[in-house]
Amino acid sequence: MVSLLTAALLFAAIPENPPGDGFAAGLTGIFVLLSVITGVLALVEAGSLYFVTRLQEPSERSRRLLTIGAVAGSLSVLLLVVPVLVARVFDILVPGPAWGPGIGLVLVPIGIACSVLGVVFQLLDGSRTRAGT
């Protein structure tokens, strides 16, 4: 949700007729898209963990992978979006390590891969259980 809020704030800040060649507005637009995609993926990863654990009893490896996926998605939002949101809301530049956004970008595909593998393993384990009974 934080990511989607950041995207809304940044989108509202893009001027209709940007000064100059519009490079800064285009860069802001790219960050808006990145924020939306990251936020939606984090929600899907957390939702998949929630629904798999509520609807079925997942195997240990499925639960582990889904948890890693949800944590990686949440951390990617924290590292990518929160500094921008704080800077925008409080109109201050947030000093911090320069490696934060890079790690945030790396965590997005890790979260996706772990969540997908967790769901696949749960489906495979569930079909084995049904076939065995």
3D architecture notes:
This protein has one domain. It is built from five helices and no strands. The chain has helices at residues 2-13, 23-55, 60-80, 82-90, 100-132. Helix 1 (2-13) packs across helix 4 and helix 3 runs antiparallel to helix 5 (100-132). The protein is elongated, with a radius of gyration of 19 Å. The model has no long low-confidence stretch (mean pLDDT 84).
List the helices and strands and how they pair.
Layout: H1 2-13, H2 23-55, H3 60-80, H4 82-90, H5 100-132
Helix pairs in contact: 1-2, 1-4, 2-3, 2-5, 3-5
Question: Quick summary of this structure?
Answer:
With 133 residues, the chain is mainly α. 81% of the residues lie in helices and 0% in strands.
Largest sheet: none
Query: Low-confidence runs (pLDDT<50, min 5 residues)?
Result: none
> What is the total domain count?
1
Helix/strand/pairing category? mainly alpha
Count the beta strands. Answer: 0
Q: Give the topology string: H per helix, E per strand.
A: HHHHH
Using the CA coordinates, give the radius of gyration.
19 Å
Terminal CA distance: 42 Å
**Helix coverage percent:** over 70%
Number of helices: 5
> How would the global form be characterised?
elongated
Output mean pLDDT: 84
Proportion of residues in β-strands: under 5%
